[in-house]
Amino acid sequence: MARALLLALDYGGTKHTAALLVPGERTWLAHGRVFSSPGADATCDQAAMLDLARRLLREHPGQLTAVGVSFGGPVDATRGVVRLSHHVPGWEETPLAARLQAELGAPVAVDNDANVAALGEWTFGAGQGCTSLLYVTVSTGIGGGWVLAGRIWGGADGMAGEIGHVVVRPGGVPCVCGKNGCLEAEACGWGIAAKARAWLEGGGERLKAGNRHPEADSGKQEAGTALLALAGGRSEAVTAQMVAQAAAEGDPLAQAVLDDAAEALGAGLGGAINLMNPERVVLGGGVTKAGERWWQIVRDTARRHALPQTRVEIVPAALGDDAPLWGAAALAQAL
Ligand SMILES: [Zn+2]
Predict the structure, then answer these.
(1) How far does the centroid of ligand 1 lie from the alpha carbon of residue 264, in Å?
(2) 143: CA distance to ligand 1 center in Å?
């Protein structure tokens, strides 16, 4: 009898990944990636992913038993329908699960990438062994997902875990969603970069009350000097990564901006902890590489905001960029 195979698919904004797993194993049997061509639409992306999946299945024969899919955008997981993509046109109301099932001949489960990544960390990564988990990715944006009693909790509309658009500072930094002071605007990569640029360009007073003032923390270095040097003297070129590096080098402005973002995240997590009392919070995404000081402030602030009877176990993600792909395998395994 042919061996059983699970297929995991991760549709990202610019790259698509597919992998094959033998159920019960913890290393991929096969793994492949294709990059979206510029100007690609949903039809191109679906064809590219299907070609990739078929190639893997041809090269590694077996009996495909289930397919799990992570999609980078809002999904109606109950119906297996992609609602839209924020990056690629043409995905509106795509019945992705039904299409893949017809093409590949196996049952398919689809969910959005943050929910699927949460399941990935719970099954294979930093969330193993706990019964309730909040996963939050802090990178260019902020997304999140819940795993409760071993299953993704999507909420009534599949929107549970969208902690990025919880307001942590009313009247704060404008967010892409139209509100002000969302966690995403205050703490994600672009939020950190925008805040640093505003300070460098002398617009610091535009930052709202409650934020730190770099000069107050000034040590030996002049605020902003190291950061501006990293950006080649051009404030508009500043990125969150540069802010983290300048902060590590002791630049008081970069440190203040990064501390401020960490405090906002800690406040948001404290609220989530009070609301759901998760056993563990797992943080992934590029901003979590910002250093030990950032982690300490996130944990301390969450502890201050959470009720004393709640546990505040906040740990780094273990699967990195592969969390959605591993979560897709876990989705398939549960079918
Ligand atoms: Zn928002």
Answers:
(1) 13
(2) 11
Neighbours of 200 (CB within 10 A): 21
In 125-187, which ranges are continuous DSSP H helix? 183-187
pTM above 0.85, yes or no: yes
Residue 137 falls inside a structural domain = no
164 with 258, same domain: the answer is yes
- How many folded domains does the chain comprise? 2
Residue 130 lies in a domain: no
Let me know if residue 126 belongs to a domain: no
Q: Are residues 71 and 170 in the same domain?
A: no
The secondary element (H helix, E strand) that includes residue 84 is none
Which residue matches tokens 């009350």? 209
Residues 146 and 203 in one domain: yes
User: Lowest-pLDDT range, 26-30, 61-65, 114-118, 214-218?
Assistant: 214-218
* Cα(42)–Cα(227) distance, integer angstroms: 39
Cα of 177 from ligand 1 centre, angstroms: 4
Any domain includes 179 = yes
Please identify every residue whose CB atom is under 5 Å from ligand 1, which is an ion. 165, 175, 177, 179, 182
> How many A from CA of 80 to the centre of ligand 1?
26
The tokens for 204 are 């610091």
* 147 and 106 within one domain: no
Q: Provide the domain limits for residue 60.
A: 4-116+320-333
**What are the b/e assignments for 287-318, b being 16+ CB within 10 Å?**
bbebeeebbebbbebbbebbeeebebebeebb
- Tell me, in angstroms, the distance from the centre of ligand 1 to residue 319's CA: 26
Q: How confident is the model at residue 208 (pLDDT cuts 50, 70, 90)?
A: very low
Q: Out of 12-16, 234-238, 286-290, which region has the weakest mean confidence (pLDDT)?
A: 12-16
Distance in Å, CA 134 to ligand 1 centroid: 19
